[in-house]
């Protein structure tokens, strides 16, 4: 293990500090309480807006605008369902955080938007926000697909997939900016790829399981951990091919970042990164660094486990 170079351009920018502020700005629970105990079956249809009664999706669901599932409401996605998210347009913008509404290409580092990246432009990009409970459970032979509806998707086609509580298993999820997993969320047996920012962001949360997934091809780090101690086992992380973002600056290259906390990182294959696992806090590094190095398989990384106290 070596002290890491400052290879990430503000990778440790807290992707979802702005998201936390959104909860105070959009009072989902108070404004849109659960409407009834009925379950609405939705198949081969278009969806957008607030979902205020339990809902089941199947067939092909076309998400035309922001989806918000308030606390107390369940969204169930059946095996084999295709969720096609509108690319670069939003028929009903519900997320109004000023920073998220910025447009254009960042000329320099701006909070969690890297130099050369497009801003979130939330007015024209869909967010799926699960404040209630998500059950997206496919099967090995009948997986769930959540992706851009564009025939030529990019990693910036839709924005945030926020899961306050729930289960995602046997799913392929792609073409989005960032996924925020909160306390009690489980992600298993799935593939996440073609991601603009952070495929898995875990901040200020507990009891999270990340198991048997393949996470690759990301514009930032593949996992970002802050003040959390998730269990991350038996996954494949990487490779994330080096590429130029729309502004012409380098992107990709980032593995797992442990900003703070004491996660269990074990029996994973981590490959194709500059720094495969970066610790930003010395107490976490001192306790876990050697263990992480011994208990995971590393392939084709510049450095495997590093302590990086001064990230860009």
Describe what this molecule looks like in 3D:
- This protein has 312 residues and is mainly β.
- It has one domain.
- 9% of the residues lie in helices and 42% in strands.
- It contains three helices and 28 strands.
- It has helices spanning 17-25, 28-31, 282-295; strands at 2-3, 36-50, 53-69, 74-77, 82-85, 128-130, 133-137, 144-148, 158-163, 166-169, 171-174, 176-181, 186-188, 191-193, 198-203, 209-211, 214-215, 221-226, 231-233, 236-237, 243-244, 250-251, 254-258, 264-266, 269-271, 275-279, 297-299, 303-307.
- The strands form two sheets. It has a 26-stranded parallel sheet that branches. It has a two-stranded antiparallel ribbon with strand order 21-22.
- A hairpin with a 5-residue loop joins strand 21 (243-244) and strand 22.
- The protein is globular and about 55 Å long.
Question: Would you spell out the secondary-structure blueprint of this structure?
Answer:
Blueprint: E1 2-3, H1 17-25, H2 28-31, E2 36-50, E3 53-69, E4 74-77, E5 82-85, E6 128-130, E7 133-137, E8 144-148, E9 158-163, E10 166-169, E11 171-174, E12 176-181, E13 186-188, E14 191-193, E15 198-203, E16 209-211, E17 214-215, E18 221-226, E19 231-233, E20 236-237, E21 243-244, E22 250-251, E23 254-258, E24 264-266, E25 269-271, E26 275-279, H3 282-295, E27 297-299, E28 303-307
Parallel strand pairs: 1-28, 2-3, 3-4, 3-5, 3-6, 4-7, 5-8, 6-9, 7-10, 8-11, 9-12, 10-13, 11-14, 12-15, 13-16, 14-17, 15-18, 16-19, 17-20, 18-23, 19-24, 20-25, 23-26, 25-27, 26-28
Antiparallel strand pairs: 21-22
């Amino acid at each position: 293990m070596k002290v890491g170079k400052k290879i990430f351009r503000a990778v440790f920018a807290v992707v979802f500090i702005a998201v936390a502020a959104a909860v105070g700005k959009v009072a989902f629970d108070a404004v849109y309480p659960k409407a009834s105990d009925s379950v609405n079956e939705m198949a081969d249809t278009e969806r957008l807006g607030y979902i205020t009664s339990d809902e089941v999706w199947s067939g092909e669901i076309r998400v035309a605008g922001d989806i918000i599932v308030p606390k107390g409401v369940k969204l169930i996605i059946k095996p084999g369902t295709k969720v096609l998210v509108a690319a670069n347009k939003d028929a009903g913008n519900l997320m109004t955080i000023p920073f998220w509404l910025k447009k254009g290409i960042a000329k320099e580092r701006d909070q969690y938007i890297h130099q050369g990246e497009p801003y979130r432009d939330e007015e024209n990009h869909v967010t799926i926000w699960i404040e209630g409970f998500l059950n997206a459970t496919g099967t090995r032979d009948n997986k769930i697909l959540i992706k851009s509806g564009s025939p030529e998707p990019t990693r910036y086609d839709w924005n945030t997939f926020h899961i306050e509580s729930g289960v995602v298993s046997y799913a392929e999820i792609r073409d989005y900016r960032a996924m925020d997993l909160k306390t009690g969320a489980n992600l298993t047996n799935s593939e996440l790829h073609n991601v603009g920012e952070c495929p898995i962001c875990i901040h200020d949360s507990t009891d999270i399981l990340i198991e048997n997934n393949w996470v690759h091809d990301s514009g930032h780090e593949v996992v970002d951990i802050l003040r959390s101690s998730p269990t991350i086992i038996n996954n494949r992380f990487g490779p994330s091919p080096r590429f130029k973002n729309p502004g012409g600056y380098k992107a990709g290259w980032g593995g797992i970042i442990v900003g703070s906390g004491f996660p269990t990182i074990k029996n994973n294959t981590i490959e194709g990164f500059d720094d495969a696992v970066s610790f930003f806090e010395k107490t976490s590094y001192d306790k876990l660094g050697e263990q992480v190095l011994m208990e995971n398989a590393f392939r084709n990384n510049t450095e495997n486990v590093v302590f990086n106290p001064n990230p860009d």
